[in-house]
Amino acid sequence: MFEVGRVYNRRAEIHDLYGGQRQGGISTPRDRPFVFLFTGESGEQYGYEDGWDTNGVFLYTGEGQVGDMRFRAGNRAIRDHAEEGKDIHLFESLGKAKGYRYVGQFACPTWEFRDGLDRNDQLRRVIVFHLLEPASEESATLFASTLTLDHLRHRALEAATSTGEQDPREARSVYYKRSTAVRVYVLTRANGVCEACGNPAPFQRPDGTQYLEPHHTRRVSDGGPDHPRWVGAVCPNCHREVHHGADGAEKNRRLQQYLGELEATG
After folding, report:
1. Domain tally for the chain?
2. Tens digit of pLDDT for each residue in 137-176?
3. Whether residues 193 and 114 fall in one domain
4. Do 201 and 192 meet the contact criterion of CB atoms below 8 Å apart?
5. What is the 3-class SS of the chain, one letter each residue?
6. Is the pLDDT of residue 103 over 80?
7. Is residue 1 assigned to a domain?
8. Which pLDDT band, with edges at 50, 70 and 90, does 15 fall under?
9. How many other CB atoms are there within 10 angstroms of residue 59's CB atom?
10. Measured between alpha carbons, how far is residue 123 from residues 65, 66, 71, 128 in Å?
11. 20 to 30 A Cα–Cα from 220, which one of 39, 45, 47, 138?
């Protein structure tokens, strides 16, 4: 939906199309599967210092200008984005009336508290989120034969819902472990049967497991740490139809409904 590096008019090309708060650094459009983050130098007067660290993690400061930052409103939306099936899209301000450059889609596996100053120069607790670009399909281990389905489900749910306080140096490791936990559970849950069409997997991998592909029903990229409620294991044909077929949106909607019923009772 956005092109990395392209400059967008925040009002006309973002909020007029998708909604969300038009002011502030965190925008949460109603009934949309994403959270918009805006970063720039204007926030430094309030103790906000966003940017990349040496580990390739983008450090993004939460919202709140006076007193300790808390996990509510936009801060809660970032922390819980995976559980709620929402993407994080980051934009960088180029200065007044110069637009916002799209940095990319991110996931938030961890966060930390830091000391900082508020608008009144009072010492307070600041939330700093650790943002990472979504993992590729190849980055996750896709099979676990030694654990029961219930165990895998418990591990996946715990991983998907516990965005925790960590050192930013641990963010990447935590992120891949969580992404792996969800993918492994989803593929095991399907038991070799496509969750979109109900047909058996088209072939086996060299290790004997049935080949299906994790598909995030709320994300085009299928990337990032997810939640079992929003991820289905589908055959390659259904996967491509969802993304490129004339009836792809309807197939994706039916899969969402199926997953909702499955995880509500599973």
Report:
1. 2
2. 443 444 444 467 887 787 777 666 656 677 777 777 777 7
3. no
4. yes
5. CCCCCCEECHHHHHHHHHCCCCCCCEECCCCCCEEEEEECHHHHHHCCCCEECCCCCEEEECCCCCCCCCCCHHHHHHHCCCCCCCEEEEEEECCCCCCEEEEEEEEEEEEEEEEEECCCCCEEEEEEEEEECCCCHHHCCCCCCCCCHHHHHHHHHHHHHCCEECCHHHHHHHHHHHHHHHHHHHHHHHCCECCCCCCECCCECCCCCECCEEEECCCCCCCCCCCHHHEEEECHHHHHHHHHCCCHHHHHHHHHHHHHHHHHHC
6. yes
7. no
8. very high
9. 20
10. 11, 10, 18, 15
11. 39
**High-pLDDT (> 70) share of the chain, %:** 86
| Same domain (yes/no): 15, 113 | yes
Give CA angle at 226 (221, 229), nearest 5°: 110
210-253 tens-digit pLDDT:
999 999 898 756 655 578 888 999 999 999 999 999 999 999 99
- Domain membership of residue 207 as a residue range: 137-265
What band does 63 get if pLDDT is binned at 50, 70 and 90?
very high
Instruction: Report the CATH number that the domain containing residue 16 is assigned in CATH.
Output: 2.30.280.10
Give me 163's structure tokens.
Answer: 């965005």
Q: Identify the residue whose tokens are 């509510």.
A: 72
Round to whole Å and give the CA distance between 71 and 134: 23
Same domain, 171 and 254: yes
At 136 the pLDDT is: 47
Answer yes or no: do 93 and 179 share one domain. Answer: no
Six-digit token string for 124: 């307070």
Given a contact cutoff of 8 angstroms between Cβ atoms, the answer to whether 61 and 128 are in contact is: yes
The label of the residue with tokens 């599973």 reads: 266
